[in-house]
Design brief:
Number of helices: 12
Radius of gyration: 17 Å
Largest sheet: none
Strand content: under 5%
Helix content: over 70%
Structural class: mainly alpha
Oligomer: single chain
Length: 253
């Protein structure tokens, strides 16, 4: 991996981690296009750049996160279903990581965004403040988030759609999805890191640091831009993008 590769992958991860477009699929596709082979170092690198955008979310939502413990209790409640399902079915989930599965679920997610937006009525969604999200809704979103354990299904996409289905408006669904990434990605990345630590290589730690910083900065901009764009429009363009990117992914991988 070169410095150029590190910057490009950091940009891709920063943009796609919180957009409903499957960051994992985009990293796989980008690595393939750059000719980067999987190794102990690239595995460590991927964990580093996936953690970086979480820090951006913590800073953006700092006031909300540290205004009280209630929001943390709801985020933990939402994380528990995903954590349990992911732990129990980890071997089965790993067996699903193939190009055909990824493309299929990218297409399903894209169609789901388009279909739900076509029937979505903003006025019928009563949750317009994240503080009003109930524990029942939080846990429901957590179960829906478990779908993102399947390769090709976006974590942010599944949680945003899940939130919209159960009564959250777009902005609240997005905010809760972004915040839920904090416990989810932290635990998932930490688990993988500890499990595979002995196989990792840190020979070029400066490339890890470059990727981390780039992913953090781009993630910050992506979250801010995403919130501004979707508050004015809807998710149909992301659904269309998923369908197109699934086709590209199928052709090139």
């Amino acid at each position: 991996m070169t410095l150029y590769d590190s910057i490009i992958l950091g940009i891709v991860e920063g943009i796609t981690e919180f957009l409903p477009v499957s960051s994992t699929a985009h990293l796989v596709l980008t690595s393939s296009l750059l000719g980067i082979e999987q190794s102990a170092f690239t595995k460590a690198y991927e964990i580093m750049i996936q953690i970086a955008p979480i820090f951006a979310v913590v800073i953006i939502y700092f006031e909300k996160l540290f205004a009280g413990i209630e929001i943390w209790k709801k985020l933990i409640a939402a994380f528990i279903p995903t954590g349990i399902i992911g732990f129990l079915l980890s071997d089965f989930i790993e067996s699903l990581f193939s190009g055909n599965y990824t493309v299929f679920w990218m297409i399903i997610t894209g169609l789901a965004f388009i279909a739900i937006e076509l029937i979505y009525k903003e006025k019928t969604h009563s949750i317009t403040n994240i503080d009003k999200v109930s524990y029942k809704q939080a846990v429901t979103i957590g179960f829906i988030q478990a779908l993102s354990l399947i390769p090709g299904i976006s974590r942010s996409g599944s949680t945003i759609l899940g939130g919209m289905i159960i009564g959250l408006n777009r902005e609240v669904a997005m905010s809760f999805s972004f915040l839920l990434a904090i416990p989810t990605m932290s635990v998932a990345s930490g688990y993988i890191f500890l499990k595979e630590y002995s196989t990792y290589s840190f020979d070029h730690i400066w490339l890890l640091l470059v990727g981390f910083v780039v992913s953090f900065l781009v993630g910050w901009v992506a979250v801010k831009s995403f919130l501004a764009i979707v508050s004015r429009f809807n998710f149909i363009p992301f659904g269309v993008y998923l369908l197109l990117s699934a086709g590209i992914f199928y052709i090139l991988t």
